[in-house]
Design goal:
By secondary structure, this protein is mainly alpha-helical. The protein folds into two domains: 1-182, Growth Hormone, Chain: A, CATH 1.20.1250; 249-457, Growth Hormone, Chain: A (Up-down Bundle), CATH 1.20.1250.20. The chain has 20 helices and no strands. Helix 4 (77-97) runs antiparallel to helix 5 (101-115).
C-alpha cells in the first residue's frame, strides 16, 4: 500500500496533462471549421490567422518552457502545476465567453503557456516515487497523452463547438481543483532547507508516519544526493565525506562528468525519438487512411489511432519496469524502422492491398509508442541530479518542441524532393541508428536511485 499516494498524485498530474493535450490537439479538427462560412466565430479566419492558429500554442509553449524551468526551483513543483492549471482554466474561460478570432488566438497562446508544465510533470513524478515504480509512474505521462488525444477527437467530432468549450472548461477547472491535493516534492523542500516538511511529504508518499525508518532512510538519501553531489563529479574523485560549498548550476555542470554524459544521452534520445517519423504519420494519417480505407470517416481514423496509442501506453507502463529501459528502446526502434521501410515501400510500390497501408500505420504507432516514444522521457525524468534537474529538464523539453517544429517545416520540401515514401526511408535510417546508439550508450536504470544512476555514466 506504500504506492497508493504516489499513484494518486501521479494520476492528478497526468489528468492535468490529459486536459492540456485536449487543447494541444484541438486545432487538428477545428481549423477547417473556423475557415468556413459556418464558423462559430464572429467571422471566418483569414489564411494567415489560420496559420497562426495552428502554431500559436506551440509558440507559447516554446516561450514559456524556459520560464517554467526557472520557476521550478523558485516556486516549487506543486505551485508550478497549480499555475499551469489555472492558466489553462483562463484559456478555456476566454473561449467560452467570446467568439472573436483575436480572443481565440490569445487564448491558444495562453494555453501554450500552460503546456510548458509538461516539463514539471516528469520531474515531480520522479521525485515523489520510489525507484521500484518510478518508470511505470513516469510512463503514465504517455498514457495521458493518448487519452487526451482520444477525448479531443471524440469531443471535436461529435459535439457542437460551444458545448465542447464548456466541457473542456469543466475538465480544466477539475484539474486545477485536484492540484490542491498534491503535496510538494520532498527533494524541493530539502533543497530549500525545509527538512520537517520534507519528512512529512515523504511520509505521505510512502503511506507511513514521519518517524519511521523508511522516512529517515529516504531523507538521508536525499540529503546525501543534495549535499554530496558536488564532491563526486567523477567516479575517480569520489570523496563523500568532504563537505563542499554550493556552486552555481553552470560550474556544477562543467565539473560533473556524469551530468554532462547524462545530458548528452537524453538530448540524443529525444532527438532520435522525434525523428522516428511518428509526427509525419500523425500529420499524414488522414490522407493515408483515406486512400487505404475510404469507408472510414476522418474522426473514426483519428479515434482508432488514439485507441492504439492508449493500448500501447498501457503496455509500456508495464514493460518499462519489467523488461527495462534499454531493451525496450532498442526493440521499439528496430520495429519502428521496419515499419517505416514497409510503409515507404508500400506508398511507392503498392506491393500489397491498400488496407496494408492502414495496418502498417497502426503497427508503427503501436511499436513506437511502447518504447521509443516513452523511454526518452522516462530517462529525462530520472537521470539528472536534483541540483540540475529543473534546468536540464527544461532544455530537454525545449528540444522536443524545436525538433517537432523542424520536422513539420521540413515535410513539404522533403516530400517534394523525395516523395512521401522516400521520407519514410530517412525515418527508417534514424530508427536503425537509434538501435546502435542505445546498444552502446544507453545504461539500464531500472530500479536505481538517482545517485546510483550517476555511477553508470
Amino acid at each position: 500500500m506504500s504506492v497508493v499516494y504516489q499513484a494518486l498524485c501521479t494520476f492528478i498530474v497526468c489528468f492535468i496533462r490529459m486536459s492540456l493535450i485536449i487543447s494541444f490537439s484541438w486545432p487538428a479538427f477545428t481549423t477547417s471549421l473556423f475557415n468556413s462560412e459556418d464558423t462559430p466565430l464572429h467571422r471566418p479566419m483569414t489564411g494567415f490567422e489560420a496559420a497562426i492558429y495552428g502554431s500559436v500554442l506551440s509558440i507559447g509553449a516554446m516561450i514559456f518552457i524556459p520560464i517554467m524551468g526557472l520557476l521550478l526551483d523558485v516556486l516549487g513543483r506543486k505551485k508550478c502545476m497549480m499555475l499551469a492549471a489555472m492558466t489553462h482554466v483562463l484559456a478555456w474561460a476566454i473561449m467560452v465567453m467570446t467568439n472573436r478570432v483575436e480572443a481565440l488566438l490569445a487564448a491558444m497562446f495562453i494555453a501554450g503557456s500552460s503546456v510548458a508544465s509538461f516539463l514539471v510533470i516528469p520531474v515531480y513524478i520522479a521525485e515523489i516515487c520510489q525507484p521500484s515504480v518510478r518508470g511505470t509512474m513516469t510512463s503514465c505521462m504517455m498514457l495521458a497523452y493518448g487519452l487526451g488525444m482520444l477525448v479531443s477527437f471524440l469531443l471535436g467530432g461529435y459535439l457542437q463547438y460551444k458545448l465542447m468549450c464548456y466541457v473542456c472548461l469543466i475538465v480544466a477547472v477539475l484539474g486545477a481543483a485536484l492540484t490542491l491535493i498534491l503535496k510538494e516534492s520532498p527533494v524541493f523542500l530539502m533543497k530549500k532547507g525545509r527538512e520537517e516538511e520534507a519528512m512529512q511529504a515523504v511520509a505521505y508518499y510512502r503511506n507511513t508516519n514521519k518517524e519511521s525508518k523508511v522516512v529517515r532512510q529516504e531523507i538521508d538519501n536525499i540529503r546525501k544526493t543534495l549535499g554530496g553531489v558536488e564532491a563526486v563529479p567523477t567516479k575517480e574523485e569520489e570523496k563523500p565525506e568532504t563537505p563542499v560549498e554550493k556552486v552555481s548550476f553552470w560550474l556544477f555542470f562543467k565539473r560533473s562528468r556524469s551530468t554532462k554524459k547524462a545530458f548528452t544521452l537524453v538530448m540524443m534520445l529525444l532527438t532520435c525519438s522525434i525523428f522516428h517519423g511518428y509526427v509525419a504519420v500523425c500529420v499524414y494519417a488522414g490522407d493515408l487512411f483515406k486512400e487505404a480505407v475510404p469507408s472510414l470517416s476522418p474522426v473514426m481514423c483519428s479515434v482508432l489511432m488514439a485507441l492504439i496509442s492508449i493500448v500501447a501506453n498501457l503496455l509500456s507502463t508495464y514493460l518499462i519496469d519489467v523488461l527495462g529501459r534499454r531493451p525496450l528502446m532498442m526493440y521499439s526502434s528496430l520495429g519502428s524502422g521496419v515499419c517505416c521501410v514497409l510503409l515507404g515501400s508500400q506508398i511507392q510500390l503498392h506491393w500489397g492491398p491498400h488496407v496494408m497501408t492502414a495496418v502498417v500505420i497502426l503497427l508503427f504507432c503501436f511499436i513506437y509508442t511502447v518504447g521509443a516514444g516513452a523511454v526518452p522521457f522516462v530517462m529525462a525524468a530520472e537521470v539528472f541530479l536534483p541540483e540540475v534537474s529543473s534546468i536540464l529538464s527544461m532544455a530537454a523539453y525545449e528540444l522536443t518542441m524545436i525538433c517537432t517544429v523542424v520536422v513539420l517545416f521540413a515535410f513539404s520540401p522533403l516530400i517534394a524532393l523525395l516523395g512521401l515514401g522516400g521520407l519514410f526511408y530517412i525515418f527508417a535510417v534514424v530508427c536503425f541508428s537509434t538501435v546502435g546508439y542505445a546498444a552502446y550508450f544507453l545504461p539500464e536504470t531500472k530500479g536505481l536511485t538517482v545517485d546510483a544512476i550517476q555511477t553508470l555514466f
